[in-house]
Automatic annotation (TrEMBL):
Record's protein name: 3-dehydroquinate synthase
Pathway per the UniProt entry: Metabolic intermediate biosynthesis; chorismate biosynthesis; chorismate from D-erythrose 4-phosphate and phosphoenolpyruvate: step 2/7
Domain (3-dehydroquinate synthase C-terminal): residue spans on this chain: 178-327
EC number(s) from the headed UniProt entry: 4.2.3.4
A GO biological-process term: amino acid biosynthetic process
């Protein structure tokens, strides 16, 4: 088991990572004498709910099983959670546990943030994406018909418990989508970690416990460091440290929007976005062609897409990238690289190079 602390301005919380941690959830939770409620989804419940309820000394009625899927990440579902907690007379000393992927974590976190003006919550992420990304950093919320994650709050968990064993039941595509975010951390902040990923990718893909634990640990550590510098993404008008976490995401969001959020998983779109960001960084002369090629090769080796969907044009990319929330005052800002592990946010780059990248990929 590995453990690290996320150190924030006014509090800190532990992230514990390892195989089989769920069995000892009660010990890690440190919630003696407090009432716990748990939310999960309809895919995770048949796999892990009984085990986790037993580990936490909870009964079936302490769990609420929500329908799985991004389309249920809505205000209506959060309202169900709030109604349920009120109906159970959970008071402000209660603790809400999120058992599931990023959808459950974001919704439970949001419900905890606004229930009686805020109660404690614990993240038990069961997807790789949730273990390396969504469970860390305190962003919670739901989608609105007008946009993803448009309603939400910052609310930090009091504990994150990432059990690598839970990943064994994850569909392969979901695993790879998480790997894309792991590769992102290496590319944006840590060239040694990137090198390690080049060496250990095959172990990760077969869910080797040590490799997974190390990859999740380092990803969380890098994210936590960035989040601690810019807890509410408020620095530099949104172009501060936290924006670096969006490497590959502006290209990726254009792909997700183009494909209507149904065919491509977020991580798959980000994977292609990473490759495109590396290509542009190389065209600008900010990163060597050789390093850009290493980025492409690692993403491809993971079995992730390195090309946008057929038929997407440079004009469509520009149009959709212009709608990305990272576009400030009409100026397109991108996260680019000055080398592997050296991401920078820039609105000041040669637009002809961007055009060349878009033409190269479409
Ligand atoms: P998800 O929660 O929908 O999980 C993906 C699928 O895997 C679902 O069908 C789920 O039921 C299933 N599943 C979960 N754990 C499983 C397991 N162990 N075995 C088998 N199946 C399992 O999606 P996700 O990829 O985990 O998270 C995506 C969400 O996270 C998005 O809504 C995104 O906006 C959000 N997100 C939030 C942040 C943040 O900072 N808060 C960051 C990144 C992403
Ligand atoms: Zn992402």
């Amino acid at each position: 088991m590995k453990s690290l602390n996320v150190e924030l301005a006014d509090r800190s919380y532990p992230i514990r990572i390892g195989a089989g941690l769920l069995a000892d959830a009660r010990q890690y939770a440190e919630v003696e004498g407090r009432r716990l409620k748990l939310v999960t989804d309809s895919n995770v419940a048949p796999l892990y709910l009984t085990h986790v309820l037993n580990a936490l000394n909870l009964k079936e009625e302490d769990a609420l099983v929500l329908p799985a899927g991004e389309e249920h990440k809505s205000w209506a579902t959060v309202e169900r959670v709030l109604d349920w907690m009120l109906g159970a007379r959970l008071n402000r000393d209660g603790v809400l546990v999120a058992l599931g992927g990023g959808v459950i974590g974001d919704m439970a976190g949001f419900a905890a943030a606004i229930y009686q003006r805020g109660i404690d919550f614990i993240q038990i992420p069961t997807t790789l994406l949730a273990q390396v990304d969504s469970s860390v950093g305190g962003k919670t919320g739901v989608n609105h018909p007008r946009g993803k994650n448009m309603i939400g709050a910052f609310h930090q968990p009091r504990l994150v418990l990432a059990d690598t064993t839970a990943l064994r039941s994850l569909p392969q595509r979901e695993l790879l989508a998480g790997i894309a975010e792991v590769i992102k951390y290496g590319m944006l902040a840590d060239s040694d970690f990137f090198k390690w990923l080049e060496q250990r990718l095959d172990d990760l893909l077969v869910l080797d416990t040590d490799a997974l634990t190390k990859a999740i640990y380092r990803s969380c550590e890098l994210k936590a460091r960035i989040v601690a510098q810019d807890e509410r993404e408020s620095l530099a008008g949104g172009a501060g440290p936290r924006a670096l976490l969006n490497l590959g995401h502006t290209f990726g969001h254009a792909i997700e929007t183009y494909t209507g959020y149904t065919q491509w998983l977020h991580g798959e779109a980000v994977a292609t976005g990473l490759v495109m960001a590396a290509d542009l960084s190389a065209r600008l002369g900010w990163m060597s062609a050789k390093d850009a090629e290493r980025c492409t090769r690692l993403v491809a080796r993971a079995g992730l897409p390195v090309k946008p969907p057929a038929g997407m044009t440079p004009e469509q990319f520009l149009e959709l990238m212009g709608h990305d929330k990272k576009v400030a005052a009409g100026k397109l800002r991108l996260v680019l690289m000055r080398g592997i592990g050296l991401a920078v946010v820039s609105g000041d780059f040669d637009k002809d190079a961007l055009q060349a990248t878009l033409e190269h990929f479409t």
